[in-house]
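Entry for the shared binder. Reason: the reviewer on the internal report wants the predicted structure included alongside the sequence.
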Amino acid sequence: MIYFRGCTARQRETSIVDSTEKLLKLADVDYKTLEDEKCCGSVLLRTGFIDDAQNQIKKNTKELSGELVLTSCAGCYNTLKNDYEGLNVIHISEFINQLIDEGKLSFDKKDFNVTYHDPCHLSRHCHVLSPPREVIANVANLVEMDNHHENSLCCGAGGGVKSAYPDLALGMSKLRIDQAKKTDSNILITSCPFCKVNLKNEDVEVLDLTEFLVKYGGLDE
């Protein structure tokens, strides 16, 4: 299995990679990473640079073909699964859920509330809705925001919006954080590094699913 870390987790939100690898090692999963990992091409595709994206796709396909590809990023997952041909791709939320079902990972359940933000690429595009929620339920009580599942609000970071329209991205993030605060949860979990970056704020702790499991799942106790 290849753990495809993705640009944001690999270069900026490295704690996501650290948490993911800790979980994989605890479950005794045999995996490898690419020393010269390249961008999946998602941003190029979404912003109209099709020729450049196709060049990335050709390069990555040679590296990833014939392997189970595990992703941290919802954008990478959607791109590798739906814009490439013939790849076997799984998102970390799906994989952890499988490991729990197989008894290879277990967590301490505690009585506190959290809420979950569905990334657009994972929910609307790929319909991965239950796995992250089932994983969270092993650790805490999930309280849904007003908009959830396929009707989740976008965090504001995808499709090049954060770079081209930073004020719009900030406004969308604020709206989502306001919804999170209404659940009376102090922790907002997501399954996409892009979402984590744009949703960061001073009022609610925003964590990737893997970070949440490592911090609150009783693994360090």
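Summary line for the report: The two ends are 29 Å apart (CA to CA).
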